[in-house]
Every structure is written in C-alpha cells, then in structure tokens.
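User: Predict Sugar ABC transporter permease's structure from this.
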Amino acid sequence: MSRTRSSDAPAAAAFLAPDALGLLLFIALPALLALLVGFFQVDGFGNIEWAGLENFRLMIGDGLLWKSFGITIGYAVLFVPLAFFAGLGLALLVSDHFPGVAVVRAALFLPNAVSLVVIGLLWQFLLTDKTGAVAKLTGLDEVSWLGDPTLALLTLVLISVWFLMGYQMLIFLGGLQDIPREYYDAATVDGGGPWQRFRHVTWPMLRPTSFFVLVTSLINAVTGLQVFDLVYVLTSGGPANSTTTVVYYAYQQAFLFGRFGYASAICALLVVALGAITGVLFALTRGGRFDA
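Assistant:
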C-alpha cells in the first residue's frame, strides 16, 4: 500500500501543480500584498509613506465601513440559502432524462456564461421605473426596484441568484449522478416514496457536494464579482448607501478617494474574516462529511 502511494505521488503532484500555482499567484500572493500595502499610505501617484497600524485604527471609527459590513452580511444571509436551494431544486428537476433535457440544462446555465456587466445592463433596462418590462408585466408602476433603499438590496440578491443558479445546478447535478442507482432501487423495494428516497438517500449522499456549494456561495456573497459588478452597474452603492458592499466600499476608497492603503487594509480584514468563517464551517462539518 505504501509502495503504491509513493509511486502515485509524482502523478498527483503533477495534476495538482497547475491549480496550486494558480492559487498562489492569483489568490495567496495578492492577499499578502494587500495586507502589506495596508501598513502604508498610498495615494496612487507614487507617494508611499509608512503608516503602521493607522489604517487599521481608522476602521474602528468608520461608520460607513461597518454599515457596508452589515449590508454584506445581509446580502449573504439572503443569497446563500436562496442560491443553494434554487440550484438543488433545478438539479433535481433536470436530473432525469427526458426529451430536450440538454437544451433545458443549457438554457438554465446560459446566464452564468454571460458577462456580469451585460447582465447588469440587461436588468437595468428591464427594471427601469414605470417603463421597464418588469413594471409593465407586474403592473407595479410605482415600485422602484433599484431606487428604493428597502428593495434595492433584495433586487440585487434575486438577480445574483438568477445569475448563479445554473452553475449551482451543474454542481449538484454532478453530485446526483455520482449516487449509485442501487441505493434508490433498495429504497424503493423497502417501500420508500420520493420524499423518503430524497431524505435517506439523496440528501446524505449529497453532503460533500452541498458543503462545496455552501462554501463557494459564501465566498461569492462576500467577495464574488456580483457584489461589485452588479452594484457598480445597477446602483453604484445607492440609494443612500443601501447596496454598498464591503468590496464596493474598498473600491470607492481606493479609486475614488485615492486611499489605496486604507482600501488594502479593508480587504485584508475581509479576507481574514472570510477565512475564519470558512475554517469554522470546515471544523463543524468535517469538510462536508458531517460525521465522525
């Protein structure tokens, strides 16, 4: 056994090397640089000055920053379960073979293949007050989906779910296809109906897949492209800062106010918080196994 494992090690390392290199170059290294820049005052014009912990101290009294954290948490609380169950429900619907199933799967995944900027412009057109297609179809002419502070964040969440549910569907579909058919046959012989088969076969066997979807959904809700691109295109953080996520707030500090050091400190704090939450999820679920 040990001899087999040692002979497979080079092949395993070769397969893992591209992903490991990508994680190092595009995630670990930028995160480390952001942390380092957070200790400096950087204005984007070549002026760099050591600031120590000043940028991190400024965050304590920044009310807009903590409001953006609250908005990000609210977004995640809404987005993660909605995207999870939308993806799972769609995967269950298209898991069986029927005429045209490939077309249906492709249509559901299609939004995820389109640029988020295009998605944002499309929904901006559809949600135009009084004259947009949504207003005409629903008859809610007086509702401002993107201009009302109480509705703007929910609208962003629903658009994000619509955008990502096809991707989540494919992940769940892969998990469903890995479940041996014999388990369902045995449950049917024992008199189990659709709900019993889902509860005692599908759901337990999908736990690793569910954990992956849960973690990736959380990361998307906090640092994903949709919490910047959609906000930038649809609301620019408004109205009344009701859709200013932490990522968008960091962008404002860096590129609108020239406070690159402060923005880097915010991003470093966000990465640490997200890493801690992900670590807690791994610990509680044992990497998605949910058992001893």
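The longest strand covers residues 40-42.
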